[in-house]
Specification:
By secondary structure, this protein is mostly beta strands. It is built from 3 helices and 18 strands. The strands form 4 sheets. A 5-stranded antiparallel β-sheet has the order 3-2-1-4-5, with no helix packed on it. A 5-stranded antiparallel β-sheet has the order 8-7-6-9-10, with no helix packed on it.
Length: 279
């Protein structure tokens, strides 16, 4: 079976004047146009290709890498806003269409929007939607506290940074847990710090508990060495200064300092931290 909007591993069946035909185990085939062929490709070779609809609404294969796959989220740029909807750059030759009914507000050319890609069962077409909330799972949360997750950084709020977790859930990194600079549209790893009774998910950018302290302590020790053995920070320093210089929250910084101090690797001075002779 051919799966639209995602990667398929298909066998190269034959070459033609317009490209190569690839097939699955059920006798279905699809064209990989000439522009994507390489000299290394050979008959019977397995190829990993992405399938989408071309301008004539035919399924076609590409070796280009899209910015999102079916049932995932990404920030995409509007390249054209028309009377029928907006066309988005998703990394492929044919732009992705977002109809008016799937726009939360009228889209403007040149701007980026959070998009979810889904398959319209009625038309069997890939559709972009900016009405993303309805695609987020709110009831059946299959996560555990402390679990590592994939994050898509979304908009900043008064409480913190909204994120999408594992392309499935909505989460929040509270301001006091943002230990490094993050940008909207960026993807990164994070950790589930709490799953609330109302289904809301608190996220941390750092590992939780004692496991978190060890890497932070190692990073702090490395940083002190970079600063010639003395770092002009203490546990009384401004949180913004700590975040700017050390790249961690004040709470994590204090835990790392305590960890290194217990191991007698650092000396606590009035206005700085310095390496001990043991370090």
């Amino acid at each position: 079976m051919l799966f639209l909007g995602q990667y398929n591993e298909l066998q190269l069946l034959r070459f033609t004047s317009v490209g190569a035909y690839l097939g699955d185990n059920e006798g279905n085939d699809v064209l990989l146009p000439n522009k994507y062929l390489t000299q290394e490709m050979a008959v019977d070779q397995k190829l990993r290709v992405f399938l989408y609809l071309d301008h004539d609404e035919r399924i076609v294969a590409t070796t280009q890498i899209p910015l999102l796959e079916i049932n995932t989220f990404a920030y995409l740029k509007v390249v054209e806003a028309t009377h029928i909807g907006a066309f988005l750059d998703w990394g492929l030759i044919k732009h992705l269409f977002c109809p008016f009914k799937e726009q939360s507000a009228k889209m403007e050319e040149g701007k980026y929007y959070l998009i979810y890609l889904y398959l319209d069962e009625a038309t069997q077409r890939l559709v972009a939607s900016a009405r993303v909330k309805r695609f987020l799972e709110k009831e059946h949360i299959v996560l555990e506290e402390g679990q590592e997750v994939d994050l898509l950084i979304c908009d900043q709020t008064e409480l913190g940074q909204n994120v999408i977790v594992n392309d499935t859930y909505s989460g929040l990194i509270f301001n006091n847990h943002i230990s490094k600079k993050v940008r909207r549209g960026e993807t990164c790893k994070g950790y589930v710090s709490k799953i609330r009774l109302d289904g809301k998910i608190d996220i941390s950018l750092e590992k939780l508990g004692f496991v978190k302290i060890e890497p932070a302590a190692e990073e702090l020790l490395r940083l002190i060495k970079e600063y010639a053995g003395e770092l002009k920070l203490t546990d009384k320093s401004d949180p913004n200064d700590i975040r700017e210089i050390a790249g961690m929250s004040k709470k994590t910084f204090k835990q790392a300092v305590g960890n290194l101090y217990k191991q007698k690797l650092i000396v606590l001075n009035e206005n700085s931290i310095s390496l001990s002779l043991k370090a």
